[in-house]
# Entry
Amino acid sequence: MDTSHLTLLTDLYELTMMQGYFKNRTNETVIFDVFYRSNPEDAAYSIAAGLAQVIEYIEGLHFDETDINYLRSTGFFQEDFLEYLKDFRFTGDIYAIPEGTVVFPKEPLLKVIAPIMEAQIVETAILNIINHQSLICTKAARVVYAAGGGVMEFGLRRAQGADAGTYGARAAVIGGCVGTSNVLAGQMFDIPVKGTHAHSWIMSFKTELEAFRNYAGLYPDNCLLLVDTYDTLKSGVPHAIQVFDEMKAKGIHSKLYGIRLDSGDLAYLSKKARQMLDEAGFCDAVIAASNDLDEYLIDSLKAQGCKITSWGVGTHLITSKDWPSFGGVYKLAAIEDRKTGTFIPKIKLSENSEKVTNPGNKTVYRIYETRTGKIKADLICLVEETFDESQPLVLFDPNEPWKKTKLEAGQYRLREMMVPVFCNGKCVYRSPKVMDIRAYCASELDTLWDETRRLVNPHNVYVDLSQKLYDTKMKLLGEMSRI
# Structure
């Protein structure tokens, strides 16, 4: 998908509301927050991704003649509004948490400050981009954690469309995958492309041995042979060893060689194959595995003592099969008072308490434990608030405010998480290259405690509200309860 022109990638009601604002001459500057309510996979963290594509979308946001003509044909829009759209551009501000950052529920990942017509139209595309890539990036981080590294993404053929496969590959590499099978993603994002061969390669030759020899001749420095086409231990592995012996006799020292398992009992087969390879003198041969892997199966295989050193993960990763939606939302947080130029906090109520929003113009601070460098908590506060690391800091649970923690001076350090991305419609942020984001993401994951990263029943990181934000929220709740 070309993210440079996604103007009509939106829900109809964004445009009908936009026309309503236009007709009522209502275009106050507002603040919308992008956040999510719960981590996918019942994990204790997520990873933000997709910001580079959001930037491309915002920079390309305009209505061309084809767009205008289509909107006219729907019968929903009047000519004066369509005329207005011809010169439409985004003129507001955007702040965001950078891609590859560990994030937690309820905190703003991205904040839009713009005239309401502009802020409304960007909602759907922003959510579409961030929800998808953050989901796949988070899934990838869990898979890589379970494997201990060495994970290749190769789910393109199982992805829900070309865009999901390509941008999903981007997100998976940010989350820690070493590369992708998706050649288009490799070209677009300058990420490593990797792969072996299919069973059809073996079957197209008269013998398995002939197929292996031909492949080794073509790719001596990337010689991973798929050994389960006929019989893994009686045919595949012995034939692979024979080819490796022949390469060695010819003086070929392969940079990467080994076998791939794609079926059967991967734990048992990898242990037997490792024994056979080692006895043949190929102790550094890679044993790669695929076949509907996810973090739980990988964790189980490792617990069984498997000898797999490289993992190819497809369907379950690129679709996040067991948790297919990230659930990010876009909610109004404040409206500017034109007379005073200040923002009036707004709050959304709900029968479900978890859907009550945090009002006002906010930012997020991350609190690290000085001694370990690990995350202690996150603090959502109003932008005008300041904190002094030379003073004690008291945190409290916003759901049970009597539960408090006091951090003494010197025990903690603060980091503001949101950075300016657009200012007055101009991009002021340069997105790093994907492999640089991947390295940053790895450093971010290192700030999590092991207890937070475990796959089952992890320890949650606290996301607290500042006293001022909490008081603002309680005041608005009190006022709303009297309506």
In short: The mean pLDDT is 96. Residues 12-136+324-481 form a domain with the nicotinate phosphoribosyltransferase fold (CATH 3.20.140.10). DSSP finds 17 helices and 21 strands in the chain.
